[in-house]
Predict the structure of Polypeptide N-acetylgalactosaminyltransferase.
Amino acid sequence: MKELFKINQFNLMASDMIALNRSLPDVRLDGCKTKVYPDELPNTSVVIVFHNEAWSTLLRTVHSVINRSPRHLLLEILLVDDASERDFLKEKLENYVRILDVPVRILRMEQRSGLIRARLRGAAATRGQVITFLDAHCECTAGWLEPLLARIKEDRKAVVCPIIDVISDDTFEYMAGSDMTYGGFNWKLNFRWYPVPQREMDRRKGDRTLPVRTPTMAGGLFSIDRTYFEEIGTYDPGMDIWGGENLEMSFRVWQCGGSLEIVTCSHVGHVFRKATPYSFPGGTGQVINKNNRRLAEVWMDDFKDFFYIISPGVVKVEYGDVSSRKTLREALQCKPFSWYLENIYPDSQIPRRYFSLGEIRNVETNQCLDNMGRKENEKVGFFNCHGMGGNQVFSYTADKEIRTDDLCLDVSRLNGPIVMLKCHHMKGNQMFEYDTEVCTLVLELSMSCPVFSFCNKFFVQSFIKYEKTDY
Ligand code: UDP
Ligand code: MN
């Protein structure tokens, strides 16, 4: 089992022992099971790209699509082989899919191209009214397709994702995902799940069966109207292998007049892996940084500073030519990133309004506040100032929080150290006053002693590097 695990970074032995057409629980909310959708829905082509995928997971994906989609809504399945090296993915696969009830076409990339260009190739060959992208280790559950297509029929500019359920990488157990999380991202431009905020619950008047407007998508699983996919600029073909394309598309769709939604009545499972089984030609970090630079340069305006300052060295990564993507942004008359932060993602980790972004230095000791690479609930530290950004970058926001990436400095522990906690936007223990007269940083709730010991130690000369006064 351990040997087989290494091949795909999931328990291949377990997967191989499970039927390709296994049954799955119906994990939908009750309100979803009784929903009625229009008879006339657009049909879809399903595009699945793969590089060295395992047989059982790939074919279980295909069978689950066929078995759980109304036949008249599923026009075809396109498998795009991104230059896999496994023999069984060649002729054996071609012979296998020939006998299936739905047309399955296999396209082969001549050379390893990455998931973005592989999907572009697949998408260009589709004939359906809607394109549905899936990873090669998914399983669709009962009723997954109709709500996605119905939402696109209602609004062709809606780009829709199912709830992504978890297929255990260890046991292949199927576990329902939550309808209470949505997609965001941190300063490093990592995609992250965050709780759906109250404002979005209010907008849906508490009806959890209605789609959630999500700031970003995970990227592997979604449906989009085929002509809208073209109109909105498909993908950035300059991106390699993996990464960044999901945020790029998310920003683009929102900024250019579309919407991105999680259709909570649709559930599709996905095997989440803890490590990548395949190589990244050019180096993992290089590739991802390049892709992220491309999206930051085109879509994030000045807010790209947050990404650059927290990722030392990233500004030296070559990102190629993005002029055609900038032209696209012009042609579609897309809104600025600040509009996106204000209207679509007000609870974002990158603050829409802030005073400063940089280091916090004790000028007496030349020590800087440093998150020490620590995690949530751990204390913030001091370290010699290195001026390289990274762990020594903090932002003093208009809400008077001191943030480092998606954590806020917090003094809720009486007599305890200042710790980093999730930002709660409620001021209180996360609100810091900056006193320009004495150049100190004073916590508003200044009656408790940890605050004083904190302030005494901690005289702030200035918030340097990026002074933002015009927010
Ligand atoms: N993939 C590909 N070419 C690549 C890298 C990935 O075709 O160079 C495929 C991969 O086989 C999978 C999909 O793209 O079907 C998404 O990749 P992965 O599942 O590794 O991404 P994750 O789900 O971990 O984000
Ligand atoms: Mn995947």
